[in-house]
Amino acid sequence: MQILSHFLELRAGFEHGIEHQPQPITLEEIADRLYCSTRNAKILLKKMSEQNWLSWEPGRGRGNISKLTFLVSSEDMISKQAMSLASRGDYLGTIELIHQLGKGEALQDSFIEWLFSFFGYRALEHEERFKDALRFPVYKWLVTLDPAHTFYAFDFHLIGHIFDTLIRYNPRTKVIEPHLAHYWEVSQDGLHYTFYLRKGVLFHHGREMTANDVKYSFMRLKQLGSNATQGWMAESIESITVLNRSSINIELTHPNVLFLEQLAHMSMAIVPEEICRDNEAIFGRMPIGTGPFRLERNDDFICKLRAFDNYFGVRPHLDQIEIWLLPSDLSESLPSWDKVQVFSRHSNSQKPVGAIDKDSEWHQIEQSIMGCSLLTFNRNKRGPQQHTNFRKAVDLVLDRERMIEELGGFREAPARSFLPMLESQSKSLTDQEEAKRLLEEMGYQGDKLRMYVYSNNNEDARWICRQCEAIGIPIEITIRSEADMMQLSTIEEADLIFYHICMESHYDLHIIQTLKQSNSYVRAHMNRERAEWVDAKIEGILSNPDVDARIAGLHDIVDELQAEKSFLFVLHRSQQTTYHDSIKGVTINDLGWVDFREIWFAPSI
Asked: TM spans, by residue (predicted)?
């Protein structure tokens, strides 16, 4: 591996495509490029020559220049080494090599096709039986799998396979169903909840789950408060009493008609007390739950889940899931998967190369993604974004229909609310001259602002910046990592944040979540006065048993925030999932992912 690194370092100093063409260079220059002495440079050149990677002809005598000839390309070397590692079962070594030594554009098409042949469904022979395994790539990695701190859709999706909640919300029937708790009672005043737990439910490390774990999980969330992503969900809990090993009583400070729905949210999943308490720092990397899959591996490049044979519910059909992190450069390369089973894109037009001319063997599910992209203005930081005129001016130059027309792809419709099904057909209002007038009226002097984004939002963010520049607003885009963008300190640095919010189908709970979540950009960018106003309104909404009245109250809050342009709705997106005929039980959840608990594979005939 080290000699390969030296070869690639040396090859990087020459132009593309000069293989088999002698290049004039001195031994001293080679030593400089390899950061070593001339003696070590000679040793390295000899080793590379013995591998038939290059030939070295030292110049002898005055005026005779040494010549270096590359016999193989960097791309070929990376591909061969990665294939060799993979053939020996060293998948971690394979993916580390791809990240450390290769860029997407530098890898041969044949190698990319070979790499993607590793993904999809496999029937693996293990101890004289076959196991169904699914391996697939992602291009941005997990941040945390701790339910208390989870922020992103992909993390939430995997948490739903590793952990369980006391009860479950069925989005199809809109009914709360038993899960870890098989029965519960609610007092007439709505302040006391008693839950009766299933017996014999095991955590992945083999210990039985008890009422003490339930108490610890909820009290941990309450004590974390704003330091937990969804700490607000435990705000209404006054006290928790363990009645016995399998029953527990929860007392609330005030009636909360959505409390059961909150208990069904994955942020309130049940964790094992001693494991989480004693390993808080690493629990997000290697968590233990009671869910249908147990986490077997989670390093910087590979996440591996295995079906939990002792699961109290219905065991998954899949035996193993393996997720690989690939360099983002490779996301532009269309995979050609002979065995691909599930392939999801935020796009309307593409499917795997293997699907071409095989339409009868492939199926597609296209759906709108719940949620929308938002642009928030930091009203806790000095700057022109504090002024209503400024925020209105930005809104007036964002022609959402033109944005969709020019950028295309997964952009489906202009957003005027959080969910696509709530949209009116009216066209968004744009007026560049009125926007300029508003800026002049407020005395805007062309101050530069910083917009924080994730890398996958760049194209949209650049388009927004161009529209703002046209009316004299300079905006600098700053790309921050997903881990950084969870931190309040990062959120508070930004003048604006552009991002996409994924929501689930329980509308009133998830609108409240957006307004209450501690590191929600909408919430974190409200000033204190507005945040206190929102909290007071939501407290009243949570005590109202009339669902229509709750929805109306939430609409009033959002309308008030929209009137002052606290944040802007931008676009809705769609997603297409393509899958092969051999995969069965495909359902796409609100987060846009396939439910791994339900899929299974029909053998080829």
From this structure: none
